[in-house]
């Protein structure tokens, strides 16, 4: 049975589905740090949550060069990968900064090589929506249908909202990755520092834990005592030294 998307009940259902999708995406990506892991979660959640969409992919560019690709079905990963050729709905969406729609690939003439490969995989319709992540990374989210004329104006609205929300979430993922990298550099510097490194060694010996965990223990003590990390390290090393000398 074909549903009339102008029917108020259908419109309400579409709004609820989209809200549920955005909520699930937020929950799935809120703590992710790895960009590729975030893309994999994005395409999987989108495929499962958008009715009528059989597969989902993502194409990412960094400084004009391919920077990442994800597909909800590994068989279709090449459709989102620009290394297979730049003529594709994803590249059109990125280049033109607008949504690209093809409801019936059997009538499509814009991307002949891509369309042939897509139809071989059973894809009959596609929506590609541009995604702005940050000043370095842009991309497109691609929704694929297994049937012709399946993609409706409601799907286009969902794709638009999905692209905007995904851009915000992926930007946050990249920010968390940068913060984690900076924290890792600071930790490495601390571990190499004399007295802090010695204190970390003491904790590792006492607890049988790795360096990062020992450093967190040291940080926890500094926070609980409200004194600088280096002072806590000095006290610990001094206490251990006295115990050894006695």
TrEMBL record:
Entries under SMART domains matching the protein: ANTAR (SM01012)
Record GO terms (molecular function): RNA binding
SUPFAM superfamilies to which the protein is assigned, alphabetical: GAF domain-like (SSF55781)
The keyword Transcription regulation appears for this protein: yes
InterPro entries: ANTAR (IPR005561), GAF (IPR003018), GAF-like_dom_sf (IPR029016), WH-like_DNA-bd_sf (IPR036388)
Keywords for the protein's UniProt record, in alphabetical order: Transcription, Transcription regulation
Pfam families assigned to the protein according to its UniProt record, in alphabetical order: ANTAR, GAF_2
UniProt xrefs under PROSITE patterns: ANTAR
Residue ranges of every copy of the ANTAR domain listed in the record: 176-237
Protein name, per record: ANTAR domain-containing protein
Species, as recorded: Micromonospora endolithica
Source lineage: Bacteria, Bacillati, Actinomycetota, Actinomycetes, Micromonosporales
